[in-house]
Amino acid sequence: MRFYEEESVSAEDAEYRVWNPFRSKLAATILKDVPLPFLHPDIRILYLGTSTGTTVSHLSDLVGPGGSIYGVEFSARVMREFLERVARVRSNVFPIYADARDPETYLDLVPRLDLVYCDVAQPDQTSIAVRNCRTFLRSGGWLLLAVKSRSIDVTRPPSEIYREEAEKLRNAGFAVEGTVELEPFSKDHAMIVAQQG
Ligand SMILES: C[S@@+](CC[C@H](N)C(=O)[O-])C[C@H]1O[C@@H](n2cnc3c(N)ncnc32)[C@H](O)[C@@H]1O
Question: Would the pTM of this model clear 0.90, i.e. be above it?
């Protein structure tokens, strides 16, 4: 079943949705050959900044009926679309209309997690991610942090900003496994993969 205007292909009596790396930083990360061994069926994910749910819909396929995705979004208009297109029709997606800066407001809705995925495109994106990891992520759990350098400083080289954000994670007790720049799929974006100590 298609959820946005993505293409689909049929093979051997099944229909597959095309996952477009120009529309999803997670697809771009996978195409950059970043190993993501923790991304398997049945995991519990907190997704910060769902937007209308393009990437969440693919993650929902990936984690299957045994997995769960708790999706946080603070824009009412965007959340309405996310609800209609994705959350209402997928039993493993749980929408949370809240500001990701205040994880205490959804404390009762989210269990202990295996992965926090953060794509909020805010100047304080790393601190938002760290606060949510401290609140919900199990020890040894994973963080995928999409860094939009232009949200932090348009005047400095993006690579400098990625290094600084990775350093902030190390200072917060994470082991940073790697940083991958997402060009040509996503300009001035990188994905940082880190593990909570
Ligand atoms: C770059 S878009 C996310 C795209 C989405 N991850 C995808 O791949 O389809 C960023 C989203 O984060 C949301 N956002 C930004 N700051 C937020 C915050 N503090 N709390 C919750 N959502 C936030 C924005 O409203 C926007 O929808």
Answer: yes
